[in-house]
Please model this.
Amino acid sequence: MKIKKFGIVGCGMIATFHARAIREIGAELVACYDTLPLAAERLAKEFGCKPYSDFKAFLADPDVEIVTIGTPSGAHLDPAVAAAKAGKHVIVEKPLEITPERCDEIIDACDKAGVVLSTVFPSRFHPSSILMKEAVEAGRFGKQTLGDAIVKWYRTQQYYDSGVWRGTWKLDGGGALMNQAIHSVDLLLWLMGDVAEVAALTGLVAHENIEVEDVAVASLRFKSGALGLLEATTAAYPGYLKRIELHGDKGSAVIEEEDVVKWDFAESRPEDAEIRESMTNRLSGGGGAADPAAIGHHAHAKQFADVLDAIENGRTPKIDGREGRRSVEVICAVYEAARKGATVKLG
Model:
């Protein structure tokens, strides 16, 4: 019997995107849970599922086979572990958790329960990202030399004031890096490999009454020997599309949100002209550059479909818990380097 019945934990903004993705892949949203009954009832009314305000009752629902978690970042651990122990497969919205140690607890619980765990990083499923990965694996960049992730977004003060958890270390786990730029950090690691050491500066420059950074810059040394740069902010009006730039001694390429804006290699191939032509001006929205709700659910749908296929075929999903942990480890190292004013080695 194919597993395809979902339950959602946390009925805030991201839950709507999860629910749309579930519907798009032909699966069924059967239940949702939130500590605020009205939030669960709102989502249930829109998508035709059963609302719960009792978490134990939600987990006991025999129809729920897969749980997606969209609570605040620092509140992923407990529901993820409980869902695993209840025998449910688990999909956790990014970040997996806010420290590597808390990520490990989720990973261990899912391993012990024998359930599939996936961390939501839909940007990996964009055609532009896949093209970049294929070029890396084909050796088209030659020796990789430099990899940059640039996220210059804008969030109003009202955004941070809209929830007591926003901008806190305990529940947000960080600012522009942990909450917004983590998608680009994940892509950079996927394309460039593991990081050996980081140096960094962070600052709270433009916003008030929050604990975390709204600007961060970090220099990276990858284990391959290549260098890299992270730039992240939520204080760059009006907000620009995120960029990933890869360079090597035989090629360079740049993706901007879902577009390929540069595609230059020493050894050209017949498909290169078509890529340059077809992979521009294909954005589905602003990518959340200025509005956190201005994202599409299309890549979420692709990732959820991959998880269902992984369950059915007994394989690891493309983005499992261990993959989700990598970006958290790097971001926490960036924070540590900024606090200490010293280079931090990873691993």
In short: The chain has two domains: 5-123+297-319, 124-289+327-345. Residues 5-123+297-319 form a domain with the Rossmann fold fold (CATH 3.40.50.720). The two ends are 41 Å apart (CA to CA).
